[in-house]
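User: two proteins, same treatment. go.

Assistant:
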Amino acid sequence: MLTRRGLLSRPALTGALVTAGGLISTGYAMAFEPYRVQVTTYRLSPQGWPPGLRLRIALLTDFHAHPRCMGEAEIAAVVDRTNALAPDLTVLLGDYGSQSAGPVPLETIAGILRNLTAPKGVYAIQGNHDWGDDREARRRGHGPTRTERALRASGIPFIENTAVQLDLPVPLWLAGLESEDTPRAQEPFEWFRLDTLTRTLRDVPVGEPVILLAHEPDVFALDLDPRVVLTLSGHTHGGQIRILGWSPWIPSRYGLRYAYGHVVERGRDLVISAGLGSHFVAGRPLRLGAPPEIVIVDLERQDAPTS
């Protein structure tokens, strides 16, 4: 006689339960989490941060705009939510479109993003997909890409391999680094990235702090210029599937080391956003344990109290 206990002990049922759990998780990962845009806030006091300076930065990255996930209405909602958070500075870290042509035109995306407001400016760099999906730019071997043209035409300052001094009462610079996926990136990784950073910071006076925008976080592993007090990155999507901090695949040569969140190494700070859009599986966006996010970084020097 088949009892309830006997039924529950059967391997077939155990397998069925695991399968059912997997199907439920997959359904959630495709139908819900890709659309649950969160606000994640970090409060940091980087080494070398100017005394007395408070700065709020909004970080938006990896839109991968697509009507089935991060479409025009969703991007407009992200813009409205970001503005409502009252950042002093907003930065865009790349991968705006989805695949080569893009179901949402880059010009449309840029036109929506131009509505971002921040008193100290809105600045953009581009990511690996902005280069990798632009066949014409890759054929030429140089920019501008379609993304760069769209951002510039919408009046969004574009700072690839450029540093700008922010309008603040103390010296602080914002620098943007080109993606690893540019046609120029054929040299060894370390040499290419450090050489590019050296050229990017050529106008920054000695001793003045820099916030570095780098789409891929791997540059953080290198011996960065000491003027760089904070690095902001995207690219990894937080793994897009993250279970108890583990992800099956991270687009980084360092694996989980730079998968997501706030990383401190050698006294330096890195923040990696999970981004906003999603890669697609079976025609549907997929995220599990790594919801899309608007990142807020609140910066203020916290000096230790004197005894």
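Protein 2:
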Amino acid sequence: MLQRIPLGGVGLVIGSILTVIGFGAYFADMPTLNLAGFFYGIPLLLGGLALKAAELPPVPWRQPTPPEVMAHRTQATPTQNQIRQEVTRYRYGEKVHLGAALERLKLGETDEEWPVLVGIHEELRDNHYTLVLTFDSPDVPWTMWQEKVEKLTNFFGPDIQIALHQPQEEMVELALLSTR
């Protein structure tokens, strides 16, 4: 739950409040409160600004998870659970979600060319839990994705089958199907 709260925003709010209190205490000639406001408020405010600048927001859910899919979540592999948890929380200092995986899979030459994860949803396919990642992939052609199916299967680990779908131009759905 706490991973879904933007730390940059929290730092900005608390830092701003303490800084305003510090300035108010300075003008009201209250030295102790003044120092507390300045010594804690300004660093928190600056830290909040730094975190906000390096913030990568969570990937939005494309659709709500139906109850029958929730019942099959026990079939999910540790890799599927880890991906779901990682991409649905705030990240700091990263340019795209799953950047290390995209780099290892060589889906783009530079981080500017990497596909961008724009959505996630869960569904059942053949009565198996499936995690579907939707990428905006303008710089990685569909043919490259198709060539990497075996590498994707090996990368995401045992008990996972990969299915690719191109719902529209420059969009790719990567389905991670649990074979448990």
